[in-house]
Structures are given as C-alpha cells and as structure tokens.
C-alpha cells in the first residue's frame, strides 16, 4: 500500500480505518479491543481466562477433550461489531476463537466477552464444531478474504502450514490486482505492453460506472441507467469474498472470470429460505443477484464507497440517489405515519443477526410477502419489526394497502419450497423456472440442480439446453441434474463441457464422469477427458488441507480401482476432520467392495461413538448388517437413522422394505404413510405402498 499512497492519497485516506484496513492485525495495545486484564469468562462449564504474559495477549481455555492450555492470541480478526482473536496451535495453524469481544458501546450491550456458538461449545461440546476444529481453522476457512495475496502453503506430508501474505489486511491489490505493472506504467507508459497500456498496467479496470448516470424514464417514472452495464468486473471482484462459495484454486484470475477459481453456491436449503431470503451467512452476492436492481444494472459502488466501505449517503439518501423522494419517501408508498419502519431498508433489506451481534442486511431488495410466511414459513420484513403481531395481521394490512398481494420480482418461492419438501409430483414447475429467463440465474440454476430427483426422459431436453447456456452458473447447476442418469446418457450430455471455456465447468463435468473408464471413451474425446481430469485432480491437490478434497480424490481413485490410494485419501480426510461423516460412509463402502465388511462395521461403530447423532452412519451400519443377514439387528440403526432425519425418504424407503422383509408389513405401511404425509408426491414411496398392499402376506 505504501507505493499507492503517493498518487492516491484521497483513496488511501478513505481506506485508512475501514473494515478492510482492520480486517486482520497483529495483537498490540492499539489493535486489541478486548479486556485481557486477567478477566474470566464462564460458559457451559468451561472457564476461559484472558490475560497478559510478557506483553503477549494470552487465552487459557479448554480444548475439545476438556484439557486446559494457554494459547497465544497472535492476531486480531475483525474490529466491529465484534472482534475475534486467532489462537496459535501447532503445525502453523491458527484458530478463530469462539469467545469474541463485543465491540459495541456498553449502552448497546457491548464491551463484554460472549460465546459465538453456544449450541456447539461448552463442557459437552459438539466436537465437529468445536473451536479447535476445521470449521474455525483460519488457514483453511478465513484467511483468504482477510489478507492480501495469501498463500496457504499447506504441506500434506507433515500436515502443517506455513501461511504467508503480502499485506496482513485487505489492501489495494486485493481488489485491483498486482500493482507492479501499474507502477511501471506510472514511471513510463511506453514501458508496458500495448495490451495493458489502456488499463494503465492494472489487471482489473473498474469502469462499470464510467460515463453512466441514473436518470428517470419519463414514461415509467422509474430510474434507468444512461448506458447499459456490459461488464461485471466490480461485482465479481467483490464477490470473490462477499459470496458463499468454495475456492477451487489459489491462483488469481481476472474478476470477469470469477468462476474460474470459485464454485458459487446456489439457493441451497440451509443457506437461503425457499423465497431466496438469506438464512445462513451468505455474504451478500447470492442475494444481490436475485434483485431487480442487479437486473437493471446497479453495481456495488452505486451504493457503497469502495475505499471507505461506507454508504454513498446516510439513511434513505442512498436510495434517493435514484428513486424520487416524492414517490418513495412518502406514506403513500411506505404506509407508515412516522419515521419508525419507514426507512427503505426496513422493508426491502431486513436484517438477520449472525455471530451473536452482527446484523447483515438482505440484498435481494424484495417486496415484503407476509402471505408467504403463512403458506411457506419464510420470514417477512413486516414481522421483523412488528414482532408482537401475527403474519396474518401483516398479510391483511398488505392486502388492504394495495387491494391485492404484490408479487415482486422473485417468482420462485413456491417452486423451490415444493421441491425441497418433496411435494412436487412432477418436474414441471422446476422446468418452468429453469427456462424462465425473467427470473434470476441463481434461482434457475437452483431449479436445474434440484432436477436430479427426476432422472426421467422428459427433463433431459431442458437440462441439455441449460448445459449449453451462455451463463456458467446455469451450466454448473445443470451438471448437478445429471447425477442419477445412466453413464451413457451422462456422457452424451456432459462430454461437450469437458472443453468448456470456464475451468470450473470443465472440472465439474469431469467429476460427473469419474465412473466412465477413459479406455471406453471414443478416441477423439479421450484427450479432452484426460485434460479435464488433470484439472480436476489439480483442484483437489490445491485444496489438500480440505477433507472434502481428500474425499474427492478417494472417489477418483476408487473409480479407477486404485483401492489402496483411495483408502489413504479417506484416511487423510478423517485425519483432517475426525467428524467428517461422508468419509466414514465412503470408506465403509470401499471396505464392502473389498469384501472387508468386518473392517467396515468396526469403522462405523467407532465413528458412531464419536458422532452418535450422525444419521448417515446409522444408515450405513444398518445396510451393512442387512448384507450380513442380521436383519433384526439392522432394524435398530435403520430406525435410528430415520428418527434423526425423518425427512430423508431414502432412509424411510429402506426401513420400510426391511420391516416388510422381517414380516412387519403393517408397520412398514405405517412408516410409508408417515413419509407420504410429509411428501405426498414421492413416487418411490407411493409405488412401494401399492406393491406391499397388493402382494400376498
């Protein structure tokens, strides 16, 4: 940053003290906000002490086995409304400690230590989410977005890190890319290539707002951009961190090709409500791209100063940059007699609080729909303020104000809700959403992904069209839809994407074809398959510290019948995360394929001692015992799996079949009926019920 200040003093001044500037700092007297004056914090039977030793900031607390140790709080993490501390562990690991400092003023409830995740920690912690586990590992899950040009430098042989960075915080090059050629350009513009001359030596040009103004259309009265937005450099540069995504490669790529290195999440259950409102912490991008404003060409810096990160104007002022006050800042629009509840963000950007004290606003900028709270169970902005009133009360008021129920831009809530809950009897609604170009691409990609539950001929044509769509996120969503299809059908649909211009698409396409041996592929396609598989393997090795990548490697080796390598990869995944359910299930299946069911039973039994609430492990153990002809013994884990996940219709189907095989047909039918009450459209359960009722006892 020092090299930037000389020419960009104004931008540097706005940046100084911003959340980007203070994203991560060494722990010093001036950077540490928390009280380390020998303060004791107690929670769930664990006593944590914050103290000083020889000038260092120290934490004495319990590990996941209940043993107490002193840990060095080497770095601060964040600054407001809370500050975390990175505790040093062996092997170059730093863990984001789950007891944080509430940096808000005391009168707002701040200036205190508090437990970030009370449901997981305490004297009987959920060890899969304990602060010492991989979910709180800074090197793997946090560091990339809090420092500049971070290199994880994970060594699989020693299972250790030597993580480095260029700048400890989110500095200039995090957004603008490498600055060396820009400095060269500033010294002598003729000393750089003609290709970079127009970009002043920078990798990225943030020119979306250049020569663009927002003006009112005289016919509609709505704001319009004076020139169309043709690039997404700024939005994608921000989304590299401000999105829910998986990082596939560490290398930096131009922001216009965000999907080259990142796999963006869709509107997945658990991350978003069925109508697209934020549920888990999803970091803005996935909600913003659902909005009508995004579709109209609004970009991040229309509302936010990119250097200070502050709003362009206070309060409603940021919206009134484009929306006329006499139309929108009036009770005729917001129906509130006082300023309370009449702020634009109160209705169109309701906040959800994460990490205990940190409210994040939903950027989908939607119209409040309390009627969907009644029908779909999603939250609504009205009741986030009027918590003493019912959703019916809110829905009645909206109906009274408008004379009808306003629909808004997002038209996919019912479709996603039904698909998630298994109540769709056909794929028609998902296909309609997939092909509806007026709806956000992220919603259409979600619909494509959900079509994997219908591996039927009538969906293939639309899925093929999605696989050829110009938008890579839609192609990626459609790739999920082919998972249940036969190998030959998958090959025919997916093989063209092995040469896709986007690297992540090529990798995901290769992942869908792992079970197809290269020697069974047409000779003219073999090279493209091998190249895509090489990229797939490179992506897994680039993330060797991620247990999911080790799982992917194991599946690859297993598909090639390299069982020893597969077993090693599964074991490495469990070394990285001893609570990784999928690795236990897959390793037990490898043992099955190797005629080593006793090893599988031992593995699953030990895993259940560690993770007794893991439904997948109970189910896997039940299947193993069925194979061993231990039907009565298998009933216990199969029943337990369904008890833990009553919505899982596969568990229900297998349990019903087992009950019928054990001579308990009436009980089997009762289990099926319970499932059909939850998911009336489930064809598999419906067919099984008919078979049981029509067959002789």
Automatic annotation (TrEMBL):
Q: Provide GO CC annotations from the record.
A: periplasmic space
Q: Where is the Cytochrome c-552/4 domain?
A: 135-177
Which segments constitute the Doubled CXXCH motif domain?
A: 296-326
- The segments carrying the TPR repeats are 547-580, 615-648
Q: Which UniProt keywords apply?
A: Signal, TPR repeat
Q: Which domain of life is it from?
A: Bacteria
Instruction: Drop me one GO molecular function for this one.
Output: nitrite reductase (cytochrome, ammonia-forming) activity
Positions of transmembrane segments: none
Task: List the signal peptide residues.
Answer: none
Q: What is this protein called?
A: Doubled CXXCH domain-containing protein
């Amino acid at each position: 940053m020092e090299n930037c200040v000389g020419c960009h003093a104004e931008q540097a001044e706005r940046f100084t003290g911003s959340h980007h500037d203070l994203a991560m700092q060494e722990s010093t007297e001036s950077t540490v906000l928390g009280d380390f004056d020998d303060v004791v914090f107690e929670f769930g039977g664990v006593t944590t002490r914050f103290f000083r030793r020889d000038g260092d900031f120290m934490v004495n607390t319990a590990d996941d086995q209940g043993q107490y140790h002193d840990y060095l709080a080497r770095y601060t993490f964040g600054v407001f409304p809370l500050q975390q501390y990175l505790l040093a562990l062996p092997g170059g690991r730093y863990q984001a400690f789950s007891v944080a400092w509430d940096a808000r003023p005391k009168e707002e409830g701040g200036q205190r230590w508090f437990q970030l995740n009370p449901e997981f920690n305490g004297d009987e912690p959920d060890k899969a989410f304990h602060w010492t586990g991989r979910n709180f590992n800074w090197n793997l899950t946090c560091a990339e977005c809090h420092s500049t040009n971070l290199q994880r430098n994970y060594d699989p042989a020693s299972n250790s890190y030597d993580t480095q960075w260029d700048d400890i915080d989110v500095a200039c090059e995090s957004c603008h890319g490498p600055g060396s050629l820009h400095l060269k350009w500033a010294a002598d513009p003729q000393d750089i290539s003609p290709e970079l001359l127009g970009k002043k030596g920078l990798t990225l040009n943030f020119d979306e707002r250049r020569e663009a103004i927002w003006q009112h259309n005289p016919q509609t009265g709505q704001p319009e951009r004076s020139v169309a937005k043709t690039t997404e450099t700024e939005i994608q540069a921000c989304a590299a961190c401000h999105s829910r995504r998986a990082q596939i490669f560490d290398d930096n790529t131009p922001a216009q090709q965000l999907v080259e290195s990142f796999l963006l999440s869709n509107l997945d259950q658990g991350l978003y409500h069925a109508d697209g409102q934020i549920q888990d912490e999803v970091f803005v991008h996935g909600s913003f791209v659902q909005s009508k404003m995004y579709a109209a060409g609004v970009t991040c810096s229309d509302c936010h100063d990119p250097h200070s990160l502050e709003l362009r104007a206070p309060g409603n002022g940021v919206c009134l940059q484009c929306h006329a006050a006499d139309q929108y800042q009036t009770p005729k629009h917001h129906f509130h007699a006082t300023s309370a509840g009449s702020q634009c963000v109160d209705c169109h950007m309701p906040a959800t609080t994460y990490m205990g004290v940190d409210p994040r606003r939903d950027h989908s900028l939607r119209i409040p729909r309390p009627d969907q709270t009644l029908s779909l169970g999603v939250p609504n902005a009205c009741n986030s303020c009027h918590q003493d009133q019912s959703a019916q009360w809110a829905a009645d008021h909206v109906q009274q104000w408008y004379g009808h129920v306003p629909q808004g831009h997002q038209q996919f809530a019912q479709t996603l809700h039904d698909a998630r809950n298994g109540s769709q009897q056909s794929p028609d609604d998902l296909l309609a959403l997939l092909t509806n170009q007026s709806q956000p691409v992220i919603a259409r990609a979600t619909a494509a992904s959900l079509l994997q539950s219908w591996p039927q001929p009538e969906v293939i044509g639309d899925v093929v069209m999605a696989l050829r769509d110009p938008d890579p996120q839609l192609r990626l969503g459609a790739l999920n839809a082919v998972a249940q299809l036969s190998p030959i059908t998958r090959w025919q649909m997916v093989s063209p994407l092995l040469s896709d211009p986007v690297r992540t698409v090529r990798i995901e396409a290769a992942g869908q074809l792992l079970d197809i041996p290269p020697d069974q592929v047409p000779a003219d396609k073999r090279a493209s398959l091998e190249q895509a598989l090489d990229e797939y393997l490179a992506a897994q090795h680039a993330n060797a510290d991620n247990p999911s990548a080790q799982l992917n490697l194991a599946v690859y080796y297993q598909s090639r019948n390299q069982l020893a390598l597969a077993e090693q990869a599964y074991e490495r995944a469990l070394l990285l995360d001893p609570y990784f359910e999928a690795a236990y299930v897959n390793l037990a299946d490898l043992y099955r394929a190797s005629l080593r069911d006793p090893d599988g039973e031992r593995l699953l039994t030990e895993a259940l001692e560690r993770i007794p609430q893991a439904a997948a492990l109970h189910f896997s153990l039940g299947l193993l015992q069925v194979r061993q002809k231990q039907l009565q013994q298998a009933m216990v884990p199969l029943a337990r799996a369904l008890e833990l996940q009553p919505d899982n219709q596969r568990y229900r189907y297998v349990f019903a079949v087992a009950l019928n095989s054990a001579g308990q047909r009436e009980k089997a039918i009762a289990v099926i009926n319970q499932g059909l009450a939850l998911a009336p459209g489930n064809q598999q359960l419906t067919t099984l019920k008919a078979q049981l009722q029509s067959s002789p006892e």
